Amino acid sequence: MAEPRDDSSPSEHVIPFLPADWPQQTTARLVGFVDSARAKTTGPAIRVSRALVYGLVAVVLGLLAIPLLLIGLTRWLINSVDSGLLWVIPSVEHDKAVWIAYLALGAVFSAAGLVLWRRRPRGAAEPAPLA
User: Has residue 14 been placed in a domain?
Assistant: First the structure.
């Protein structure tokens, strides 16, 4: 019968002029090189793509939230005027409460539009000259 061989003896795997752990060192250098190349190439691309995706999600959610907030504000104002929760206006009929709420919101948005209109750059509202 043959005797079992011990493959773990370091004398068989040692190459002259190389350290004993050269496979681990070479692997570590290759992994370091690949990680460095990946960090320089795909790292910025991943950051840009994440910023783009998160920005688009934020824009879509914001565009969805604006009408919902306006609808909620209008409903709250109508209910507040209708039930007399606003101390300025006593409780009124529902039809009148709707008109009052629409008038109030129209006045607020018109005032905001006038403020923005006055802050526009000079000449922005003038038509371009014809060629």
Answer: no
In a domain, 8, yes or no: no
pLDDT tens-place string over residues 64-76: 999 999 999 999 9
Q: Give the per-residue SS3 of 13-72.
A: HCCCCCCCCHHHHHHHHHHHHHHHHHHHHHHHHHHHHHHHHHHHHHHHHHHHHHHHHHHH
Q: Higher-confidence residue: 42 or 86? A: 42
Please state, in angstroms and rounded to a whole number, the distance separating the CA atoms of residues 94 and 1: 105
Mean residue pLDDT across the chain: 85
Full residue range of the structural domain in which residue 72 is found:
23-118
- Total number of domains in the chain: 1
Q: Is residue 60 part of a domain?
A: yes
